[in-house]
Specification:
The structure is a single chain. It is elongated, with a radius of gyration of 20 Å. Strand 1, helix 2 (31-39) and strand 2 (42-47) form a beta-alpha-beta unit. It has 163 residues and is mainly alpha-helical. The model has no long low-confidence stretch (mean pLDDT 80). It folds into two domains: 2-49, no CATH class; 53-162, no CATH class. It is built from seven helices and two strands. The protein has helices spanning 2-11, 31-39, 52-55, 57-79, 96-108, 112-121, 134-158; strands at residues 18-23, 42-47. A two-stranded parallel sheet has the order 1-2.
């Protein structure tokens, strides 16, 4: 964690305030880590145990569409014969480069608005004035989920065996 703080500091190009949001994993709470964050001018917000599903933006709105996108990438790869078979008639593993491409495209397909709204839903924002009505936030996240479901349906219609 201390090396990670150094890495973050190398990337910072200005003195804007910064906050890191972490779960209550023991390594995040070491006194040396907290001191390093404090000395670097980075506020550390710790999500209490058992509340990540409510307070962690990834868990609240981002992980599901990301995983849906990743699953779609795999389905397309399988439908296009990407796996093939080994001599023993087992499916071949995907190449690391293929998986990296799936991850990148899956992340790139998460709309910026979903990411922004997930932070707002968790009440993590630069300004409390920016926080919007939670119904609007839920609607943005649900719209993203609906788009993913529609795209998955289209893939299945092209190749029913992709499921």
């Amino acid at each position: 964690m201390n090396e990670y703080v150094d890495y973050i500091n190398e990337l910072r190009t200005n003195g804007d305030p910064m906050m890191m949001v972490y779960d209550s994993f023991r390594g995040h709470l070491e006194e040396s880590v907290k001191k390093k964050f404090r000395d670097s001018g980075i506020d550390l917000a710790v999500i209490p145990g058992g509340l990540t599903s409510v307070c962690q933006p990834l868990d609240v709105a981002i992980n599901k569409p990301f995983k849906d996108n990743l699953r779609k990438e795999w389905h397309i790869w399988m439908a296009n014969g990407g796996a093939g078979e080994t001599v023993a008639r087992n499916l071949r593993r995907a190449k690391l480069s293929d998986v990296c491409g799936w991850v990148k495209r899956s992340w790139d397909n998460i709309p910026d608005e979903v990411i922004i709204q997930s932070f707002k839903k968790c009440k993590i924002s630069n300004s409390l004035d920016e926080l919007e009505n939670e119904d609007d936030i839920d609607e943005t996240i649900q719209d993203s989920d609906k788009e993913n479901e529609e795209e998955e349906f289209e893939i299945e219609m092209r190749d029913p065996q992709a499921r």
